[in-house]
Design goal:
- By secondary structure, the protein is mainly alpha-helical.
- Helix 1 packs antiparallel against helix 2.
Length: about 200
């Protein structure tokens, strides 16, 4: 079985999990005996990395935990999913920067901050996170990981050294989602839609 077929089976299992359809999940395992071992590994990884119900409060993930999570995603989904940022997600959906911002009812400046990794994940409410993830047809966990992987596109001024450009990118200040919206050129209605 090739990676694309295995990826499709994993996505079908996740869809059945979200729908609570245990029969479909069992049928996937039964109907694809050659994929049982990698699917079982995937299911085990899914349940191990699933947040517990008791800890509903969102906490900041330590860098070590972020690396472990990225490694787990890479092993489960392959390298394509583990290192994807929001810019790549938008491009995979065939959207321009303006189309994504317009579709989300966000200012282009705010969405650009998401793609550049400036928005702090911890500043998003669960409702906001789910809304953003649903727009791109991914889970909230996948969107969170992609936000953590997001970073600005390096551009070099001919007079600037590569090291100076990297230093400039590294110094970009993190910002809360609410702060980004308040400073945005968005309409009052759009701001209210996201901040209420």
């Amino acid at each position: 079985m090739n990676n694309d077929e295995l990826q499709q089976l994993k996505m079908a299992w996740l869809a059945a999990e979200e729908a609570g359809d245990k029969d479909t999940q069992l049928a996937l395992l039964r109907d694809h005996p050659d994929a049982q071992e990698p699917l079982i590994d995937f299911i085990a990884a899914y349940h191990i990395t699933e947040p517990s119900e008791g800890n509903a409060q969102q906490v900041e993930i330590l860098p070590l935990t972020q690396r472990a999570f990225a490694t787990t995603l890479e092993r489960v989904f392959g390298s394509s999913m583990a290192h994807t940022g929001l810019r790549q997600l938008r491009e995979q959906n065939g959207l321009s920067l303006v189309e994504a911002a317009r579709g989300l009812h966000l200012g282009v400046d705010v969405w650009k901050k998401f793609e550049d990794g400036v928005i702090e994940l911890i500043s998003l409410s669960e409702r906001q996170l789910v809304r953003l993830a649903n727009f791109f047809h991914v889970s909230a966990e996948q969107f969170s990981n992609m936000l953590n992987n997001s970073q600005p596109v390096p551009t070099l001024d001919r007079r600037q050294t590569a090291q100076a450009a990297r230093n400039t990118l590294n110094r970009q200040k993190k910002q809360s989602f609410a702060e980004a919206i308040k400073k945005s050129t968005m309409s009052k209605e759009e701001k209210k839609e996201w901040l209420v």
